[in-house]
């Protein structure tokens, strides 16, 4: 425990902030979200505060199942690997975590891109493996609707095995650059992977040398059973959604058991719960900030959001009545965690309107609102109790909440010795205390 | 003609230079080719010389059909879209041309990436559309061997139509950012494309706004009949391989006729022949430089290269004998231009060894070797005669030949008023005099 420190990841999906209607906030940016300078400034502030990573979430579609979505929701954003590649050129230490879909890309292409990002960033890349649960996504890739949940996770597991073999296919010692003899590479250390599986057939070798980190750090964020099985085998960072310290500790204990079953040690997986930090001068100012944010969501958009979560149009049911029967989560092909959340609220007797308001309000991660000291206290408690190895910071409104946090909370955490004051040398793995994976072809010799 | 000027594109495939064995040259870089700094310096030099673009070629495989390939050929490089995204962050004016395969990617993914690159670079992206002609490539994407030539081009044409519809799917005026009313977008100006074709089914809309250039500039490089048909319809830059002014003029005339048939004007397609400039103090020094480069290729690698080009292992035939019967080019699924080139040499009675030596020597583009004045004279003649709208500069050895050219030849061309002395404002389209395409959804109203 002596060297254990809080890992700080600055998360974003909406470039205006994690609150769904953040774009309406007076301090939220406009069209500059499509340019590089906006992100360059955010990344610069994050590096100054010695944050560990920037985490870009992603969907491969616009959310437009219901009529309010296009009108009111800020559906557009830059592709994260493009953006992080650009940010790699103007940052030096911060980790670059990108979401990418294992359902709608090819292992050879994605392995190349991550390997290249790892090289140009000096070993700072991480891949948040997602399986893309939206119908809208499936329809952009030749399908009529979403792929079955278990099938997606099965494909993701095979995708990861294939990508790892590709990353290993040119051994570290393979490239000789021997100008005198004319031997560029040692053919015995360059491998065809000859993968033939249910989902992929890939010969290899990859045409990019092994990444500085061996593999990019593998991140996983789904908390369905299928997601946890994948994470326990492959993930090194888990982005979790726990609503309390108690829940966080249970989640940790569950994963520790799973890791051991997989022959891994608990410290090989860092669990980072998402939190929404709102810095304010007082508790009442924090409350006002929250109330203001909540006022920004059009009621219809909130209902349509719940409809998307449960795969059923709720707008045709009386808003003040109960939720109608919902799909079975065991066979549901969307994001099961969200379905279960709505079902739990319905079971408590909440009406459609109440659930919509609740969902619109808080999202799924706990809000930590208050003075810098109060926020630091709460984060410290989660960390000390073992409910978190660090946090995925989901700033409600950007750039304001990010700036407040880096200016006020980060130094407080540094004073307490909870987070780093300087970057350690080396790759992102080195900085986070994650092992560099052995090369499977070297190990097999 | 008054405003016509030479377009200068700095091309590279091998990061050590376009000569196949450039990596063995004493001045060639080592492992720094996998880092960003090497490319940042090259791009910086190119911008200082006011070059129009950097052009990154690509394959989605290692060339390893024959045993010499891995041993002697510098098969590894960074993925170009990752690298150009990073370079977008550290350059301001230069165009960023990236090769990407229409055979082994998905329209939604690639349209997003190019749209994002266009946004972060302020409208400097261009896509060199290729169809991937190597067996090695096919085998990394689920196939046993290469896809039939015509099928690849048919897919590429449908890919382009789909990508263009995606780029248009969010109209310029669609995003309102109206914080007061809560309308983020005008739903009437955000379009599902509902593409259903032989190769793709894509619903859309894209989740990135229309690129600053409308579409990235479309580049095409194959000179097969299928390639020319595609280029005449879609391309705005053509990377050609002509061995003489005469050939270049014929090529231009052929394309002019094709463009008119497609309802386009000749000036809507810029033709850039590839040339290998070798700057030297004298003609004899230039000759020495060429001889030295030629000495770097192991003879076996040269034979194996020809074997790859013609889809037949020639190493089992007597090197000093004639070339055996070769595949018919009409049904050949590899790069037909290369097959035809070898057939022409065989028809002249050249032996396998002679053809291998010839192929290893010069590549496929003409060498322009000499003093800066001699090179400028030759380029000027091609340009004035109408055989070229500019050039794709394939420097034999990097960074040396690039540095020599930007230091010595570029200023000479500037003095003659043939190339720009300063960058014009605006996007790459603006700078090159290429029209911004109309949005098909706006036009349809």
UniProtKB/TrEMBL annotation, chains A, B:
**Coiled-coil regions, chain positions:** none
Keywords of the record, alphabetical order, are: Flavoprotein, FMN, Monooxygenase, Oxidoreductase
Q: Which Gene3D superfamilies match?
A: Luciferase-like domain
**Which GO MF terms does the UniProt record name?**
oxidoreductase activity
For whether the record's keyword set contains Flavoprotein, the answer is yes
Q: Which SUPFAM superfamilies match?
A: Bacterial luciferase-like (SSF51679)
Luciferase-like domain ranges (all copies): 22-382
What are the EC numbers? Answer: 1.-.-.-
Matching entries from Pfam families are given as: Bac_luciferase
| PANTHER family for this protein | ALKANESULFONATE MONOOXYGENASE-RELATED, C2H2 FINGER DOMAIN TRANSCRIPTION FACTOR (EUROFUNG)-RELATED
**Family statement drawn from the similarity comment of this UniProt entry:** Belongs to the NtaA/SnaA/DszA monooxygenase family.
- What name has this protein been given in UniProt? LLM class flavin-dependent oxidoreductase
Organism (species): Neorhizobium phenanthreniclasticum
